[in-house]
Amino acid sequence: MKNGFRPICRAAFEQTYTGADIEANWTAFFATIDLCRVATEVGDHLGYAYPYELDRRATATSRMFTSWTMKRRPFTGRLETINETMMKATRIFETVIYADDLVAARQFYTEVLGLELVTAFDVAISFRCEFGALLIFDPEKSILPGRDVPSHGAIGPGHIAFAAPADTLDDWRAHLAAHDVPIEKEVTWSFGGTSIYFRDPAGNSVELAPSTLWGGDWGF
């Protein structure tokens, strides 16, 4: 090898050899990538275009994995929003909508929709759902600065959807009629299932949604 390579090429080639150390392996890996780029000169001579953009993206991804495996500072670049522990939020716990009249909202969601009230304050009321909580805030109070938690708010009607198995829709229609809640619209989806839409006292759009939505097979 010493006789067949120019000194500069021999030095580059030697850097591709390594042992069992993880850092040495990554160093050798990137040295191999650098050495392979010598092929660009051959490719240019033969009329082949080197995939520079693919090279850039592949190298960036490789360096990101390097930072994960070596527990260093996460790679700073296009993929920097992915942290080295690969955290993933898997379930929505709180859903928030807004209402100017929390008394009317409390009556509607307990009597019409049958939700269990958990807490009631001047700024918000909360209800327990099967896999989380519904919070309804007074937007004029929740938007104020200096609260114990970050301020938030919204203008205009919001939207919320509750899971509704297909065999319960007739009962829901009768139940809403008995509480003088008009159905605003019904939508039968091309992929199956029907949604029923109506309004709460604050004007928020409330939906009874089928399990066929958003990819289907939701198990309810």
Structural class: alpha/beta
Task: Indicate the overall shape.
Answer: elongated
N-end to C-end Cα span: 67 Å
Radius of gyration (Å): 30 Å
**Number of continuous helical runs:** 7
Largest sheet strand order: 1-4-3-2
Give the ordered list of helices and strands: HHHHEHEEEHEHEEE
| Fraction in beta strands | 15-25%
E-strand count:
8
Q: What about the largest sheet? A: 4 strands, mixed
Runs in which pLDDT lies below 50 for 5 or more consecutive residues are 73-77, 79-83
Work out the helicity level: 25-40%
Mean pLDDT: 83
In brief, what are we looking at here?
With 220 residues, the protein is an alpha/beta fold. The protein has helices spanning 7-14, 22-36, 39-46, 52-69, 102-112, 139-142, 169-178; strands at residues 94-98, 116-120, 124-128, 133-137, 159-163, 185-188, 194-199, 205-209.
Describe the structure.
By secondary structure, this protein is of the alpha/beta class. It contains 7 helices and 8 strands. A hairpin with a 5-residue loop joins β6 (185-188) and β7. The strands form 2 sheets. A 4-stranded mixed sheet has the order 1-4-3-2. Strands 5-8-7-6 form a 4-stranded mixed sheet, with no helix packed on it. It is 34% helix and 18% strand.
